[in-house]
Every structure is written in structure tokens, then in C-alpha cells.
Design brief:
Blueprint: E1 4-7, E2 22-25, H1 38-44, H2 57-80, H3 86-103, H4 114-118, H5 128-137, H6 142-172
Antiparallel strand pairs: 1-2
């Protein structure tokens, strides 16, 4: 599929990620900066797709974690060399975390009121709203990178714990 120009849906409107009211999306490239939240853009615009990542939790958690692991090394090097482009890489890391957070709870990402939507998520790190807000406001700080890394680890542990509980219940039945 080639990239298509669509309206940024109100559920995703967040100036941090979308500077305009329209965005080009290509679902096959959803982990690339220009196409963050491509599946959500399509979904909220009423465009039906057979594959919705939040319905395939185990696969997408692995994909997002793999993408984060690649990005994490770049971010660390950018901080080490005091490269100002680190902010763009942190933005990608934050987008990946939103994907992990929402998709691991089997729901599409919602950015507009994500603080409120987080309250309904069963799998999430402690104080996730405050921590992500701090990271977004302070992407230049190395501590933000450390905090983002911890959020990824905590969310992955939440998912692994939930998967183990589900498997245990299946074995008991």
C-alpha cells in the first residue's frame, strides 16, 4: 500500500506528534516517524483493515520491543555525544511506548486524552501518566531516556505476567 493523505482524527490530535490536520500514512511502515499511529489513523477515519495490531498483542509487543531495542542504542549514543537530534529519536521512543502501552491492553492508541484513557488500562506501569508527561517535556535530559527505558521494562513485565496468568488459567481448566 502506498501512503495516503488522511485527516488526523480527533482521538489522535496531539501537536507533539502531528503538526498539521492531515498526515500521510502507510500501515506497513507504522514504526517509522512519518507513519506513527498509522493503523489508528485508518481505524479512526473508518477505513477497515483486516489487521489491527492491538488485536494481536503477543506479536506486536515483540515487534515494538524489537524496534525500541534498536532505537535505544541510537538514543544512548546521541546523548553520549550531546547530539541535539536525540529529541527526534526520543519522540520515536515515546511513540513506541504509547503503542506498547495501548496495544498490550488490546486497544488502539488514543493521544488526545491519553491521561484519562490510561486510567482504564489494566496493564500499565506505576505513575505512567506523570512519568510520560515528564519525558515528553524533558526530552533533552538523559534522565528522560532512563525513565523511558524503565517504562518499557515495566510494561513488558506487566504483559509477561498477564500472559503467564492467562496460561495458568488455561492449564487449570
Amino acid at each position: 500500500m502506498t501512503a495516503v493523505l488522511l485527516k488526523v482524527p480527533e482521538q489522535l490530535f496531539d501537536p507533539y506528534f502531528f503538526g498539521d490536520n492531515e498526515v500521510y500514512v502507510c500501515p506497513e511502515r507504522y514504526m517509522e516517524e512519518e507513519h506513527f499511529f498509522a493503523y489508528e489513523v485508518l481505524y479512526y477515519n473508518g477505513i477497515k483493515k483486516k489487521y489491527l495490531p492491538w488485536l494481536y498483542r503477543d506479536k506486536v509487543v515483540k515487534d515494538v520491543i524489537d524496534s525500541w531495542n534498536k532505537e535505544q542504542g541510537t538514543i544512548k549514543e546521541k546523548y553520549k555525544s550531546r547530539d541535539k537530534s536525540v529529541q527526534n529519536h526520543m519522540k520515536k521512543g515515546i511513540a513506541l511506548f504509547y503503542m506498547l502501552l495501548f496495544w498490550s491492553n488490546s486497544v488502539p492508541v488514543s493521544l488526545r486524552e491519553w491521561h484519562l484513557d490510561c486510567k482504564d488500562l489494566s496493564l500499565k506501569p506505576v505513575n505512567v501518566e506523570e512519568r510520560v508527561t515528564f519525558i515528553r517535556q524533558n526530552t533533552k535530559l538523559y534522565h528522560s531516556y532512563v525513565q523511558l527505558t524503565e517504562l518499557f521494562q515495566e510494561q513488558y513485565k506487566q504483559v509477561a505476567k498477564d500472559r503467564a496468568i492467562i496460561n495458568l488459567k488455561k492449564n487449570i481448566e
